[in-house]
Amino acid sequence: MSETKTERQVAAIELLNELLGDDVHLCRIDEHRSTLAARLATLRAQIETQHLQMTVIAQDRRHKYTYVAESNGRALVRAREVVKLVETVAEQVKDIVERTEKLNRNQKELTTFITRLERLRSFVENIDRLEKLMLGREYERIGSLLLATQQFAEQFQEMRERSFVGEQLGRFDYLQKMLQRQVLELFDETMRRRGSVNAAQSINLAHAAVVIDVLGEASQRALIRWYCDRQLGDYKDVFRGNRELANLESIPKRYAWLKRLMVVYEAEHAFIFPVEWKVDQVLCLDFCAVTSHDIAGVMQSFNGAKINLTLLQTAVQQTRSFEQFLHRKYPKNPGLSISLAFEPFLFYFIDSHDQALLKFKSRLPVKLTLADFDASNVLTSASELFLLFREILQDISELSVKKPLADLCKMFGSHLGTYSKYLEERLPRMGKKPFVSFDVRTLCVVLNTTDYCYLTTVSMAERIREIIHPHFSESVAFDGAQQDFLVHVSVGIGRLHLSISSTLDACWTLMSSISWSGLKSVGDHSAYVSQIQRTLADQQPIIRSTLVGSKHYVALCHRLATSIVSRFSDNVKKIKHLNDFAAQQLLVDLEALRIMLLDLLRLGDYGALRTPFAKLVASETADVEGFLKCVMAPTEPASVFVQNYLLVRADVEESKFLAVLEVKGIRRTTLYLDEFRSHVPKRPSEQGRELKFFRIDEHLKKILQAVKL
């Protein structure tokens, strides 16, 4: 407040200074006083006017505020009244809604009750109508009415506890039972008469079958069972009650009976039954079951007695043919089978074939002759054996592809093992003398036979696995016999090689008799090489022309190449003081032997088999060739000789180096051995031993020093 007053005083002073700032203005002070008085009066008048206006405005605002306050009060009272009114209306609406919902529920319950009552009335009326229709046997009208009545009955099942409803449901259940019995009696009465069913009867039975279809699966099964028993009743009486027909000869008559029965069914009865019932299939299934039981009884009646296998085979084949007829008519129905009844008794065939194979074995020649060889250089007995196997397999596979066929495979395996031993005994054995030409040919023929048996056995096993039931496929195995055949092939090639090697003994004896140390010149290959060539030339045509295929002949050539080069090498290493001329002559002989060995496969269609054989010959002869070249090398100085040896042979085996020194006739072997050892890297084990010895020496030195101290 004081600050405001001061500001006003300052403003007044400034105004006075402005008006009276100099003498001129002071002289006119009266004028200024009048001016100020007039101005003051004007300001007071303005202030008064403003005050009056403010007073009027304040009064207006006071009146307006009072009016607004009064209006708000009245509005608040009105609003409270409206709220109360709304709450009252809401309660009334809620009450109305509840009453409406209750009325709707009552109306719905009343409607449901009326509907149920109407349905119950219809249910009772339908039962009454069904009873009347049953009396008149009007099955055409009963079917649809029965279906509707069943639907009503399902709706009233939950109300069965109520006396009236339970009484009507029980009445309806009894009616259905009586209806089923009545329909079955109708079928029995109609089909019991002799002769065919006429059209009117068929239509009536068809309507009755529809009624059974509506009654449910139990009634369907009962009617189908009655029909099948009825149709097969005469069949059972004829074939079970007559001993003359209860045998294998009457098997075709049984199947003809069913075929006639199916003709009658398709002509007269197929129209009666609904298609989805498949009555014809059920009839065939029952026929198969009855016939299988009868056949099992017929087979058991033999009780170990002699049986006509031809008749049994015919019966089984006729049964399989009839099954194929049924499977074509009704595919994908495994129950249509009768031949399973024969399977437990098919051992008669297997025993018979076993006896036939035993007789075949007894006829096998003990000593082979040219008459026992066929045109393909295989024993005729092998071809006959597998021909028998093929015929037996064909017979049994036509009868069954399950356990009997698996048992047959076991029998085949046994006889294959027996024949394998027979072939083993027919392989010629080496005596004091080499084989003659017939022995060589016999050996080759037996080799061909064992190989033929092995390949045919593998093929036969694959064929059986294709036709046998998958459950028994694992039982098809001839591994034992196949392994025996392979062993016999190896043994036969070994004996053939041994025979040829024995004929070459004279050639190697001739080689050993040559004075190699005194040889003064080098010429063409030696006489023993020519003798080896002639010996192989005598044996080769028989072997090559008799052995079937190339693999066995090539295997024999592999063994011959290895043994001939090895024998040549052994003879070379036995020579003492071999000079350069002798070494050169032996190199010429070795080259002649190499060419001779390669010529073993020169003729004939051996194709890619020549390359591995050529590599084998080169590998075998290379070692001997290197040995001879080392023998030809100068021995002085020793270091150069050792270096040449390692360069040519690249072999660090000390024994082989000693063999070269021995053939050279060098006595100062210690010098050469020391030089050889100096060029050969030491083995880890030898280095360890030297280190161990060094450590022991150091330990001894320390002990001696301690003793001296």
TrEMBL record:
Record keywords: Membrane included? yes
Metal-binding among keywords: no
Cellular component (GO) terms are: cytosol; endosome membrane; GARP complex
Q: Which GO annotations describe the biological process of this protein?
A: retrograde transport, endosome to Golgi
Subcellular location(s) of the protein: Endosome membrane; Golgi apparatus, trans-Golgi network membrane
User: Coiled-coil regions in this chain?
Assistant: none
Pfam families annotated for this entry?
VPS53_C, Vps53_N
Entry keyword set: Endosome, Golgi apparatus, Membrane
User: Which InterPro entries does this chain map to?
Assistant: Vps53, Vps53_C, Vps53_C_sf, Vps53_N
Domain Vps53 N-terminal per the UniProt entry, residue ranges: 10-359
Q: How does it sit in the membrane?
A: Peripheral membrane protein
Residue ranges occupied by any Vps53 C-terminal domain in the UniProt entry: 585-666
Q: PANTHER family per the record?
A: VACUOLAR PROTEIN SORTING-ASSOCIATED PROTEIN 53 HOMOLOG, VACUOLAR SORTING PROTEIN 53
The family classification in the record reads: Belongs to the VPS53 family.
The molecule here is called: Vps53p
Natural source organism: Paramicrosporidium saccamoebae
